[in-house]
Design goal:
The protein is of the alpha+beta class and 429 residues long. The chain has three domains: 102 residues, OB fold (Dihydrolipoamide Acetyltransferase, E2P); 82 residues, E3-binding domain (Dihydrolipoamide Transferase), CATH 4.10.320.10; 196 residues, Chloramphenicol acetyltransferase-like domain (Chloramphenicol Acetyltransferase, 2-Layer Sandwich), CATH 3.30.559. It contains nine helices and 21 strands. The strands form five sheets. Strands 11, 14, 17, 18, 19, 20 and 21 form a seven-stranded mixed beta sheet that branches. Strands 3-6-8-1-9 form a five-stranded mixed beta sheet, with no helix packed on it. Strands 7-2-4-5-10 form a five-stranded antiparallel beta sheet, with no helix packed on it. Helix 2 runs parallel beside helix 3, helix 7 crosses helix 8 and helix 7 packs across helix 9.
């Protein structure tokens, strides 16, 4: 029997490490080639990783919950035939991604960063102009910062974290000074711990939940969120959909939902206001050429946000097929890393859970996220009369560094105008 050593796979170009959430096989189990072997969380995705070879699990070298660098041996598999104790090491996922990944969470999972000492960082001696400029602005020596980028490179986020740490230390020192010296000083605000009473059920955080919490806090702390809402009369849209949904199901083999109509309207908004299809880049703003729209999809394993690539090149039918395909593959665990990356804007059909008003958190570095709330019947003025109309709220969170309220408002007005123009003669092809 030959022994093949499985290593922590490279699940993305900039990924430097992974956290083992769960082993799906135990010692002594038989595993087929490309069968799911373990669940790994990285800074890009939470995924099931397939076995690179078939055989019997000999050893599990890393415990669940541990975070290890890419290429670290994590498992040994006995393979029939070959030379005993083969020295070849295998990553469960080749860079070509010949086997699919089963994704679990819509956020890019942030695993704890590998630490690099100041000396080794200094020996690498090279920092991007943006990193050097940011370090100078904050009075930080990049040679004394632990790098979390590829190969231990110091990134802009590393500089910002180092700056925040120094600020916190200074604030703590000030708060501990005598009252006469700390008058007017800022207080350090920390999370208030829960009060645990007898009979309460304390549920430990999963690694995924920890990462989501970290990312949400980071987004709210680093991105200046602003918010707008408009009301939209979608009476014509609901009538069109109700009229054609049965024939559409028979002809196309899938249900006609509101999502592709909403997504098409967002495409028109992004075309008209390209500043919304942009990303903040510290000392610049990147206007994205492609329009890749991420969408929320609920699965038994949690919420994921696969991306419809080049959404501007698809009509309503094309968007319906693309979204249906992504949802089905999400629920069957067949999404790939590529399906979850490259988004330039995000939409969320929050109305599916009955909400009428939400304040979504931006999926940085994107400039915005729009939600479509529940469609409800409400009295509205039509001409000089009051009638019962099908109304929906559109809620937009946007990065105020990238766009101002004028652009954000214009973006929503384009979406509103597009949706309200839908009528019985509107083509979906």
């Amino acid at each position: 029997m030959a022994t093949e050593v499985v290593t922590m796979p490279q699940l993305g170009e900039s990924v430097t490490e992974g956290t083992i959430n769960e082993w799906l096989k135990k010692v002594g189990d038989t595993v087929d080639k490309y069968e799911s072997l373990l669940e790994v969380a990285t800074d890009k995705v939470n995924a099931e990783v397939p076995a690179p070879v078939g055989g019997t699990i000999k050893k599990l070298l890393v415990d669940p919950g541990a975070t290890v660098p890419i290429g670290t041996p994590i498992c040994e598999i006995e393979v029939p035939g070959g030379v005993e104790e083969s020295s070849a090491s295998h990553s469960p996922l080749p860079t070509s991604q010949s086997a699919p990944l089963a994704t679990e969470d819509h956020d890019r999972i942030e695993a704890p960063a590998p630490k690099v000492d100041a000396a080794s960082a200094g020996e690498r001696g090279r920092y991007s102009p943006a990193v050097r400029r940011l370090a100078e602005e904050h009075g930080i020596n990049p040679g004394q910062v632990s790098g979390t980028g590829a190969g231990g490179r110091v990134t802009r986020d590393d500089i910002l974290r180092a700056s925040e740490s120094e600020t916190m230390i200074g604030a703590v020192s000030t708060s501990k000074a005598p009252a006469s010296q700390s008058a007017g000083a800022s207080l350090v605000v920390e999370s208030i711990p829960a009060v645990i009473d007898e009979g309460d059920n304390v549920r430990p955080l999963s690694s995924v939940r920890k990462v989501i919490a970290e990312r949400m806090v980071r987004s709210k702390q680093t991105v200046p969120h602003a918010w707008l809402m408009v009301e939209v009369d979608v009476t014509g849209l609901t009538e069109l959909r109700n009229h054609m949904k049965r024939d559409f199901k028979e002809r196309e083999g899938l249900s006609l939902t509101y999502l592709p109509f909403m997504m098409r309207a967002v495409v028109e908004g992004l075309r008209t206001v390209p500043e919304m299809n942009a990303q903040w880049n510290q000392d610049s703003i990147v206007l994205k050429k492609r329009i890749n729209i991420g969408m929320a999809a609920a699965t038994d394993r949690g919420l994921v946000v696969p991306v419809v690539k080049d959404a501007d090149q698809k009509n309503v039918v094309g968007l319906a097929k693309a979204t249906q395909d992504l949802v089905q593959r999400a629920r069957s665990g067949r999404l790939t890393l590529d399906d979850l990356s490259g988004g330039t804007f995000t939409v969320d059909n929050t109305g599916a859970v009955g909400t009428v008003l939400t304040y979504p958190v931006i999926n940085a570095p994107e400039a915005g996220i729009v939600t479509f709330e529940s469609i409800v019947k409400r009295p509205a003025v039509v001409g000089n009369m009051i009638g019962i109309r099908e109304m929906v709220n559109l809620c937009l969170s946007f990065d105020h560094r990238v766009v101002d309220g004028a652009e954000a408002g214009r973006f929503l007005q384009v979406i509103k105008k597009h949706l309200e123009a839908i009528g019985p003669d509107t083509s979906i092809y």
